[in-house]
Design brief:
Structural class of chain A: alpha/beta
Shape of chain A: globular
CATH superfamily of the largest domain in chain A: Formyl transferase, N-terminal domain
Helix content of chain A: 25-40%
Number of strands of chain A: 13
Radius of gyration of chain A: 21 Å
Largest interface: A-D, 32 and 32 residues
Number of helices of chain A: 8
Largest sheet of chain A: 7 strands, mixed
Strand order of the largest sheet of chain A: 7-6-5-8-9-10-11
Oligomer: homotetramer
């Protein structure tokens, strides 16, 4: 049956990979609709993302490819279908709102399964869009107790990715380990500048002339995960830290949505602490 | 003998091109050091730039590739060697100066064969770098007479490209036709805004909040040739047109040098009125 | 009574203006909380925006200032209160959505009185936010008939500004003349490049390496009104025009919201075809 | 005698400062050609830079102003004349070259008194411009011994500012203390990210998507001095650290020259660890 898939390969680099892979496509009479590859020479790693279309069975294509790529290769043959996301928020609406509007417009290749918050500030907004909203207050609980409740809620959903759209709580090792390469965060600074709390206050204090935002996968090292997207805007001495916070919101939401778009379209490879974004 | 070449192919798109081309490389045991390809679906055109290394004869590689690519394909197998350029200027030194400094530092993959000017303002600067300087005054001449002298001078040089580094004269059809895809110009606006004379005055009058610069191949349509690179900087109401001109110089020189770098590294394909820059 | 106002003055430049104006503030023991001024020397025009606070009557302050500024001066003493806007849209939700989310978050210094559209595509979204939505279909009508209906609807609202958040219809002279300096539009190109219809198609065809968006006051010259804000993003040969359109949406919405923020905070002076933005 | 000066005032904020200062200008019939002021409310500090012209004696104007500004105020009345700079470099030519070209074009409001280097790599380039070049090799010396020689050389020059145009040595406390607010450095990262050695290697390792450069006053805290200007460029996974270094050079030179331009035009106030740039 006529179909279109994304073939995603990362493996140790070896001579003839492009030839061997494109031979599989050619022998099966597939169209290459889009093709990007990259070799990290320092690390000796090969990355390839190819969109192919034609008459074929996914399983068979996988088998054919598996035969000719290195034994340690990661191979995914992905049919482009809408993914599912769960969004975690606290009180600020800009990043969440940007995703909601894109979702409503059909511009987000994902269904929003649920929004989970530690405050109820955003409940009204979320309900406007007929999306399930869950509040898990952290009051009177240990961090672990709170997280357990959040994780239970998450695990009840179907999801491909967890999006931290300004979720202002630090995640424990346990949480992060439970969802490897599944958690995407927006940090409100140009990482690695201003790691940790109150980056706008830090930026204001340091007197920087540019502020930024960073979307990254969450790993157990706080604010140290692989960066997916970054952007910046100029500021000057006239901005107090709250003005920077306000100005920064536009960058935060755009960068998060951009990163989310890359991830939902399977355009991101993670290698060590870095990303390859095709 | 061990060598490294850039293989540049553009042709009508066809199934199996990547496979067939990579097979040639694989059969000859060549390393693919860098590979970029692009299919313009609207136009049905295929573009590929691959850096390969290994033991081979350039002529033989060309022959092999010619056999398997479409009959109308443009194929170039280019050994990465320093190219030669001739620079045309008028009075402003920033774009020329940027090239001279890069040249001196060994960061420009080109030798500057000559600088030709219609004024002697920049003679002193050029002579500081021991580079031949020729003044061809336009005074008392028709445009054609002046251009004929300039063209004679150009034709006496060995050159791959002619760089207009703020050459403030309009070229005739005859001049442009003589050097197809050989002339690179920096226009001091974000084209296609402010075509023609005095773009900064035009920009000031229009009250834009951003100004820019555009490096492009020169074709017989004034300021309408294929764009290679563009960049911009913010401006505001405080800048008079002369301030914009001053501020714009930084963008002009960076954009021209960036475009020149692309061209000298054979990273630019021209297709119709557009470029593909790998 | 303790209050805070924005004093907005534009007039022909004259010696001693700053002195005389600041004397009025000083004599009345007012605090200058923020002060910006600008002299356009070419035009001989003086612009000043000062935020003052203290115990005073607005009327009296106006009277005092009127005495000492030139007779042809424009003086406004504005109390910072939420303004009212009417939004016109067609089918695209990104610019409207951005305003709705800011409005919901209390970050927009305005109440949205109504959204008027020539299609019902966005009705559902607007109703989610409990904001009045009016559809005025243009089908089977002349341009004038349609506009008359829209104008009647607008005139029934209380409003300070009309925001064209991707309203894809050309306005007649009559419409524009009816609301001088009241209509703010987002044009989906870096004006003055790509005036008119389908700027992304134009941009794609021209092969630009940067696309942009422009927020401007609407005057009777199509896409020629005073520019309030502009921004850009890089593009490359990989983007088809529809990809440019998609990528451009982020710039469009941010630029419109930024411009709107300036206008709502009385930070914009219009002079001829230009703006001074403090 | 008709003259034009820059009046620079910073002091604790107080009511009536603008009034009192503008009164001095008005009473003496001076033209205000340009006026910028800023109040840092958090710190309670007032900053003002006014360009005035007319018939007056500088000394008298200073006296008049001194009478009406707070006793702790810093007042400077500066006649706009070319300043003098000494440039320190190591081996890279881009930042130095950019300054040399601007200097040659008459676009730098400064005379270059000398270039001092710890290597002779750039001697040839500097001599091309007929500017004194001094090499002070650090070989076989302690840091202190080397610095003493450099300081002796500096002190033999007339200079207003010392420009570190990619001077790759760490300065001692003694050196920095000797020239307070006189040393301007370009750091090859977007500070405070990647403080210290090899910022491009650090940036590459961290996998950032944007790199930048920072021009700042040098204080005894390494890379922690007041920031004057910053800018950035996008990068991606394709760039190895040496490519980042190469790409970063354009930002470095532009940012340094921009900062230098601000400083030479007396547009920068330093307050604590921050700058106000008018």
């Amino acid at each position: 049956m006529e179909k279109r898939v994304r073939v995603l390969i990362d493996c140790n680099d070896a001579k003839g990979l492009v030839y061997k892979i494109s031979k599989v496509f050619y022998d099966r009479d597939l169209n290459i609709e889009n093709n990007r590859e990259f070799v990290d020479k320092e690390q000796g790693k090969f990355f390839m993302r190819t969109v192919v279309s034609g008459n074929f069975e996914v399983k068979e294509l996988e088998n054919e490819l598996t035969k000719i790529i290195p034994i340690d290769a990661n191979l995914r043959v992905v049919e482009p279908k809408r993914k599912k996301i769960v969004i975690l928020v606290t009180k600020e609406s800009h990043a969440l709102g940007d995703i909601l509007i894109r979702h409503e417009a059909g511009e987000l290749d994902a269904d929003i399964e649920a929004v989970i918050a530690n405050h109820d500030t955003l409940e009204h907004l979320v309900r406007r869009f007929d999306i399930p909203f869950f509040k898990v207050s952290a009051e009177g609980m240990t961090r672990e107790e709170h997280e357990n409740q959040v994780m239970m809620l998450i695990d009840e959903q179907k999801f491909d990715y967890i999006v931290l759209a300004k979720y202002m709580r630090i995640l424990t090792f346990k949480f992060v380990e439970a969802y490897p390469q599944k958690i995407i965060n927006i940090h409100h600074s140009f990482l690695p500048a201003f790691i940790g709390a109150n980056p706008y206050k830090q930026a204001h204090k340091r007197g920087v002339k540019i502020i930024g935002a960073t979307a990254h996968y969450v790993t157990d090292d706080l604010d140290e995960g692989p960066i997916i997207a970054q952007d910046v805007i100029p500021v000057n001495h006239r901005l107090e830290w709250k003005d920077m916070q306000k100005a920064g919101r536009d960058v935060e939401k755009i960068v998060l949505s951009r990163a989310l778009n890359y991830v939902l379209n399977d355009r991101v490879f993670v290698h060590g602490n870095k990303t390859i974004v095709f």
